[in-house]
Amino acid sequence: MKSKKNPRIGSDLDDFLREEGIYEEVVAAALKKTVAIKFGRQMRNKGMSVASLAKRLGTSRAVVHRVLDAKNTSLTLHTLARTASALGCQVRLEIVAA
């Protein structure tokens, strides 16, 4: 009896996620988690609280909590850039061919 070959052997995670139709969702979640972690580290390094960051941004603590929420992917580029600036850092974005 012949064994069936596994169609996933030799494929990579990106291929699997595309086949499942969730590639963009997973990438967005990973990017947001990275942003939230980096901003959190910047805040800790500067001894900055959520309240003080909110004050610098001229917004509410709820907005800052959404920025720092790794699961909330609805972050605008404007908010991303403003938050980075308020934390004394900058965001670098690179678009590369897939």
Would you summarize the structure shown here?
The protein has helices spanning 13-20, 23-46, 50-57, 61-68, 77-86.
Could you please describe the fold and organization of this structure?
This protein has 98 residues and is an all-alpha fold. It has a single domain (13-86), classed as 434 Repressor (Amino-terminal Domain) (Orthogonal Bundle). It is 59% helix and 0% strand. The chain contains five helices and no strands. It has helices at residues 13-20, 23-46, 50-57, 61-68, 77-86. Helix 3 (50-57) packs across helix 4. The radius of gyration is 19 Å and the shape is elongated. It starts with 12 loop residues before the first helix and ends in a 12-residue tail after the last helix. The mean pLDDT is 90.
User: Beta-sheet strand percentage?
Assistant: under 5%
- The Cα radius of gyration reads 19 Å
Number of domains: 1
* The top level CATH class name: Mainly Alpha
Largest sheet: none
Structure classification: mainly alpha
Individual helix count: 5
- Please state the overall shape, judged from the principal axes of the Cα atoms: elongated
Output the keywords.
mainly alpha, 434 Repressor (Amino-terminal Domain), elongated, 98 residues
Which helices and strands appear, and what pairs or packs with what?
Layout: H1 13-20, H2 23-46, H3 50-57, H4 61-68, H5 77-86
Helix pairs in contact: 3-4
